[in-house]
Design brief:
The complex is a heterodimer of chains A (271) and B (328).
Chain A lengths: L6 E2 L5 E2 L2 E12 L2 E12 L3 E5 L6 H8 L7 E6 L2 E2 L5 H6 L2 E3 L12 H7 L9 H6 L3 H19 L15 H14 L4 E5 L7 H18 L2 E5 L3 H7 L2 E6 L2 E6 L1 H5 L2 H8 L5
Parallel strand pairs in A: 5-10, 5-11, 8-9, 9-10
Antiparallel strand pairs in A: 1-2, 3-4, 3-6, 6-7, 11-12
Helix pairs in contact in A: 3-6, 5-6
Chain B lengths: L2 H34 L6 H16 L6 H8 L12 H23 L8 H23 L16 H11 L7 H23 L1 H11 L1 H6 L4 H27 L8 H12 L4 H21 L1 H4 L7 H12 L14
Helix pairs in contact in B: 1-7, 1-8, 1-10, 1-11, 1-12, 2-4, 2-5, 2-10, 4-10, 7-8, 7-10, 11-12, 11-14
The chains are: A alpha/beta (271), B mainly alpha (328).
């Protein structure tokens, strides 16, 4: 199966060509090597998981993709072009949205306003127009408001539209954060431990939303998750990291049977 | 109504209007503090600088006249024209925006992720720099600011209240104008921050820098916008205070009066700045009226600070500030 070919999965979704490719990425903090010579690709329409034990460098990898960190070595190819070093907000404008492990919502703002900020990259009116709320600025507000409302419906959070998100329970905050990232209609959606700290029921809800997002909008998703069960259930392909190296890459079944991966997760017997 | 009560009412009204002016200065502090966590010590000097620039432009002063004359041996001071008030206000606004851009380029950009105390020190430096720069640019003499705002006692209120209560209220028309302007300013700022893309971005940055970046908001651009708005607020405050008591160095000291206002209202709350300003304004006038004669007067100098101090003990986050909860 060559990387350029598209194929159809068992559940009928189409996986397209490579949208993002990491080539030999190395990231150091002073003397500490967080990521060591890792390459992998993400294909259009797939759910790609990055797993690994604590401190394996998974979050660093996500931060490299969205521009919070700049790798010392390696190339990042996005939408067929080599990406020049960019600041995070510029990368957002390229169509990469994300959520955070520890939830980074705008806590004082309502659910609706949080999701509206997710539309930021799609709103083009200038400051002067906004100041007088005239012409394009007004139209733009109305149009984007409609899209935000659709996302609110989709995530079933109508009842908390006007609630300041700081007051919401953890599980709902995670869902609002997903909504804000979705509002950007990203080419690539990064989810940093979307199910961390959730109970079983909340995890099931979140898995369903992730699958629905991928299915209905065809959104390409790269996610980090600790819960192996969930990862194996929802992802098409999995990258396994350990101590900053890549130790496995393939379908959930391939990864499950990979000896290095088993060793990393269960430990190597000392005999 | 008894004479004493009427007099007290007049004092309260005057206090409210003085409070509006405090609130205007405090507002500038809150805007910058919310968006960047910087306590901008230079806010008061910005008001002074804005007022000086406005007068300078309006009366056709040559900027840096003293410097130019010293170096070139010339004797130029005035262009010899007068710029209409509205146009000079717009031009001054332009200068304040330019100033915001420079602050971001020269200062803030290099201090990203530094401790708040470092940023605070930087703004102290900025304040003294601006003070000197303002003097160099426009001269250090006391200037008269006149943009056509109404001044003097309001005859209408005086006669009406005299007819009703047999006691004429003394209210300065400038104070009334300041109140109206402040109300309009606050309402438009609120609407802007609630219902526009940039307004939401401002609130987003105030809340969480990383998340703001991740949705595509450029922090640097937002800082320029925030400092521009703060410059605009400083200009409005400078016009009001300047019209009241002339454009002079002491104008920058009103910034210090904004401190107790902020302690009362909370550093992060716009309504807090308004209510805090009003409380201080009314409080110090009433205190002076009721207690002043007993302690030999001049209580207005310290009342606000003592009130803020007492307030700090019981409610450190201020009236409307976010509650500080620290996990141990």
């Amino acid at each position: 199966m060559s990387a350029a070919e598209s194929y159809v999965t068992a559940d009928g979704r189409t996986i397209g060509a490579t949208v993002m490719e990491m080539r030999n990425i190395t990231l150091r903090f002073g003397g500490v090597v967080a990521i060591k010579d890792i390459s992998f690709d993400i294909r259009e329409g797939e759910i790609r998981a990055i797993i690994g034990p604590n401190g394996a460098g998974k979050s660093s990898m996500l931060n490299v993709i969205n521009g919070f960190y700049h790798p010392q070595e390696g190339e990042i190819w996005f939408k067929g072009e080599k990406r020049a070093p960019m600041r995070p907000h510029e990368i957002a404008h390229q169509g990469i949205a994300r959520t955070f492990q520890n939830i980074a919502l705008f806590k004082g703002m309502s659910t609706l306003d949080n999701i509206m900020t997710g539309r930021f990259t799609h709103m083009k009116s200038n400051l002067l127009m906004q100041a007088f709320w005239k012409g394009p600025a007004e139209r733009e507000e109305v149009e984007n408001r409609e899209i935000a409302e659709k996302i609110i419906d989709f995530l079933e959070i109508q009842h908390i539209r006007k609630t300041p998100v700081g007051r919401l329970p953890y599980g709902l905050q995670k869902r609002v954060e997903l909504g804000r990232a979705l509002a950007a209609e990203p080419r690539l959606l990064l989810l940093d431990e979307p199910m961390a700290g959730m109970n079983v029921e909340e995890k099931e809800d979140m898995s369903r939303f992730i699958l629905d997002v991928n299915d209905e909008f065809g959104t390409t998703i790269a996610l980090i998750e600790h819960d192996m069960g969930v990862v194996m259930d929802i992802s098409d392909r999995v990258v396994v990291m350990d101590y900053g190296r890549k130790i496995g890459d393939g379908t959930p079944d391939e990864v499950r049977n990979n000896q290095d991966v088993i060793d990393a997760y269960l430990g190597v017997p000392h005999d | 109504m008894p004479e004493q009560l009427l007099f007290a009412t007049e004092v309260i009204l005057n206090g409210l209007m003085a409070g509006v002016l405090y609130a205007l200065v405090a507002l500038g502090f809150v805007l910058i503090f919310k968006a960047s966590g910087v306590f901008n010590y230079a806010q008061g000097v910005m008001a002074l600088f804005a007022a000086m620039t406005l007068v300078g432009i309006q009366t056709g002063q040559v900027p840096f006249a003293h410097l130019i004359n010293t170096i070139l041996g010339t004797e130029i001071h005035h262009f010899g024209w007068h710029v209409p008030a509205l146009l000079s206000i717009l031009l001054t606004l332009g200068v304040m925006i330019l100033f915001a851009i420079l602050v971001e380029r020269v200062l803030l950009k290099h201090l990203v992720n530094q401790e708040p105390i470092i940023l605070f020190m930087a703004t102290i430096g900025l304040a003294y720099f601006m003070e000197g720069f303002g003097d160099l640019m426009w001269g250090s003499d006391i200037k008269k600011l006149d943009v056509g705002l109404p001044q003097g006692i309001s005859e209408t209120i005086d006669t009406t209240t005299y007819e009703w209560f047999g006691y004429g209220f003394f209210i300065d028309r400038l104070d009334i104008a300041a109140t109206i302007v402040a109300v309009i300013l606050v309402i438009s700022l609120t609407l802007f921050s609630q219902y526009t893309k940039t307004g939401r971005a401002l609130r987003a940055v105030a809340d969480d820098h990383q998340a703001a970046l991740s949705v595509g908001i450029s922090l640097r651009r937002i800082w320029v916008i925030v400092w521009s708005i703060a410059g605009f607020v400083a200009l409005v405050a400078g016009i009001m205070w300047g019209a009241k008591s002339g454009v002079q160095f002491s104008l920058s000291l009103i910034a210090l009066k904004a401190l107790p206002v902020l302690m009362l209202g909370g550093f992060t709350s716009i309504p807090g700045a308004i209510v805090g300003g009003l409380i201080i304004g009314v409080g110090e006038k009433l205190f002076e009226f009721a207690i002043g004669p007993m302690v030999g007067g001049a209580t207005e100098n310290w009342f606000a600070y003592v009130l803020a101090l007492i307030f700090l003990v019981f409610r450190p986050q201020g009236l409307f500030g976010e509650k500080i909860i620290e996990r141990v």
